[in-house]
Amino acid sequence: MSEIPEHCPGVTSDTAGKASACAGCPNQTVCSSGEAKKPDPGIGLVRDRLSQVRNKILILSGKGGVGKSTVTALLSRFVARSNPEKNVAVLDIDICGPSQPRVLGVLGEQVHQSGSGWSPVYVEDNLSVMSIGFLLGSPDDAVIWRGPKKNGMIRQFLSEVDWGSLDYLFIDTPPGTSDEHLSAVTYLSEADLTGAILVTTPQEVALLDVRKEIDFCFKVKIKVLGVVENMSTFVCPTCRKSSEIFPASTGGARRMCEELGVPFLGGLPLDPALAKCCDDGEDFLAVLEGSRVVDDLKDVVTGVLKCCK
């Protein structure tokens, strides 16, 4: 459905499509006919498909450019590497800006389809990924789709990918609180969603938007597993000393979490060596073994796993 008016009576109301607030709404005909009250069959399909996925975790951010896709890749790689007996996967539902194929080093791979659904691309023996990036003719191709088509693709990803048995599924989303997020939440409403991890940077301009993302989680009843403060410090590539390039003038993510009553999972530094690993699709755990970013990531992952089954 299109954007909901401020005084919408709701699709379950007897006045749906008939109230004065419904005048001019593009969904008025659908609501008044009763079609909107019917459950979406995709919800059941997603529930059945993900029944063997123990933990389903959304990765959210209020603002673009805070490193959400990078954090998703870091978490998935670290969990897979440190728990070789566990199966981990990444689902990239950032339809217009898919980053996971490049960051995870599988750019150019092909997706195969069988009678049981789409087969994800494997990064490691226990780490797989699915993204619309695998379905494009070229990494430079723009995805110019309206909301309904994007929502349909998200439904396909959630209900038609043959993940098999998984311990952790990290779902990388686009920034904001719009169509893709509402679609994901709706389709996962009966699939026992574990919760959401929110990514921000220390400066207030980013925290303002992540507060909206936290409010979104509260309103749609998603458990906030915690907040990760990315780029909390800058690691000099020459001397390896740390400095703040995004000053936390209002106390940063830690202070915000205290105010809103949500867990603070920790901070990750901005390291040029890590950025290069992501651009080249290299395994940062092997390249940056013993670095501060790996140590800090371990603390973040420990906090995440405590919230999981």
Summarize the structure.
The protein has 309 residues and is of the alpha/beta class.
What this model shows, in words?
Residues 54-218 form the AAA+ ATPase domain. This protein is of the alpha/beta class and 309 residues long. It has two domains: 1-38, no CATH class; 39-306, Rossmann fold, CATH 3.40.50. Helix content is 36%, strand content 20%. It has helices at 28-33, 41-49, 68-82, 100-103, 147-160, 179-187, 204-219, 252-260, 272-280, 284-287, 292-306; strands spanning 53-60, 88-92, 112-114, 117-119, 121-124, 127-131, 166-172, 195-200, 224-235, 242-243, 264-270. The strands form two sheets. Strands 1, 2, 5, 6, 7, 8, 9, 10 and 11 form a nine-stranded mixed sheet that branches. A two-stranded antiparallel sheet has the order 3-4. Strand 3 and strand 4 form a beta hairpin. Helix 3 crosses helix 11 and helix 5 (147-160) packs parallel to helix 6. The longest helix is centred in the C-terminal third of the chain and has 16 residues, at 204-219. The model has no long low-confidence stretch (mean pLDDT 90).
List keywords for this structure.
309 residues; alpha/beta; Rossmann fold; 11 strands; ATP-binding
Break the fold down into its secondary structure elements and pairings:
Elements: H1 28-33, H2 41-49, E1 53-60, H3 68-82, E2 88-92, H4 100-103, E3 112-114, E4 117-119, E5 121-124, E6 127-131, H5 147-160, E7 166-172, H6 179-187, E8 195-200, H7 204-219, E9 224-235, E10 242-243, H8 252-260, E11 264-270, H9 272-280, H10 284-287, H11 292-306
Helix pairs in contact: 2-5, 3-11, 5-6
Family: Belongs to the Mrp/NBP35 ATP-binding proteins family. NUBP1/NBP35 subfamily.
InterPro entries: AAA+_ATPase, Mrp/NBP35_ATP-bd, NUBP1/Nbp35, P-loop_NTPase, YlxH/NBP35
Binding site for ATP: 62-69
